[in-house]
Amino acid sequence: MSHHIAIIGAGIGGLTSALALANAGHRITLIERSTGFSEVGAGLQLSPNASRILIALGLGPALQRAASDPTRVVIRSMKSGNRIGEIALRDHMQSTYQAPYWVIHRADLQTILLDAVRSRPNIQLLVGRTVTNATQDNTGVSVAITTAGGALENLQADMLIGADGVRSTIRKVIGDTRSPVYQGYIAWRTTIDSQLAPASLPRDETGLWLGTHGHVVHYPIKNGSLTNIVAIQRSKEPVEGWTAPGKLSDLLVSYGTIAPELKQLLSSQNDWLLWSLAYVTAQKMFQGRIALLGDAVHPVLPFLAQGAALAIEDAACIVQELAASPDNITQALASYHAKRIDRARKVQDNSKRNGKIYHAPALIAVPRNMVISRSGPTGMVKRYDWLYGYKG
């Protein structure tokens, strides 16, 4: 049975759910507040639990052209630069989970998804529109919309998906009025020309630098021509907005003494965008004919690189449950909640715990480093079989 489904938010989760539901025969109206889709200075990671879903949607060839697949993650000390251990990626991930571990510029992934969405005749994309409210009854959902020009619109649909981010309007609509809580971390993001990176840092590897006052992750995007850098800083005070400018000198002061090659890497770019990391525990993934997806219901701290992956998993699960209960949307969404809530919380909890492990004080860092070293590249992966091996 085909349904008319409204989706709020054309981020990774919203675009993926629109494409997957359209492929299943549903009619989609995708509503996005912004009028543009590019995002500067942001990369993301697509672990096998997410890449296999995108490949099943027919996006494999396009992603393979745009994404990079690092050979491994090399873990180092921020302070000394000493190598702590590594995590096997490329060949091991493919052979173990039958899907790649990709890294990609967010704008490239959005473009690939947008191209696919725009090619589907059963998807209508509305941009420059803000959803202000939604109501539902036994027959459908009514969505209140304000256009960029201030005009009021109303959309009727059989079902609504809120993929509208950590400060979700739709989360409040279904009765979860909690506000995200600042977690004491600021994320700094930028991209650099890979030729500016220290020659000692191979372009086909991901780097993870662990320190008491924060950590740094970098990996290749744009087929290795660019390097995406994410620097996490402990901070008692949040910053305003999602793209606050940052002064590198402030970051370096907060880190204290760091290895020369890491300082060289960070100093190769002066333009940084900052945002504060906020969090709300997954609680309520649906009500009646309305479902939440991605950061709208389970924002994840970026210490497991699973924010986009979880949203992609959510999209695939909604499609499966609607196929299993085609005549009963409420039953399908109740099954979606039941199948997803524990996993979402487990990923949230593990991501939060990783932050404490990454930023361990010296006395705890020593045994941590020993565990990482003794686990070996494949042992570090095996502890996350439950994550990367997920197939719904």
From TrEMBL:
Domain FAD-binding, first and last residues per copy: 5-351
Record has DNA damage as a keyword: no
Keyword terms of this UniProt record: FAD, Flavoprotein, Monooxygenase, Oxidoreductase
Domain of life: Bacteria
Cofactor field: FAD
Cross-referenced InterPro entries: FAD-bd (IPR002938), FAD-dep_Monooxygenase_BioMet (IPR050493), FAD/NAD-bd_sf (IPR036188)
Protein name: FAD-dependent oxidoreductase
Gene source species: Hohaiivirga grylli
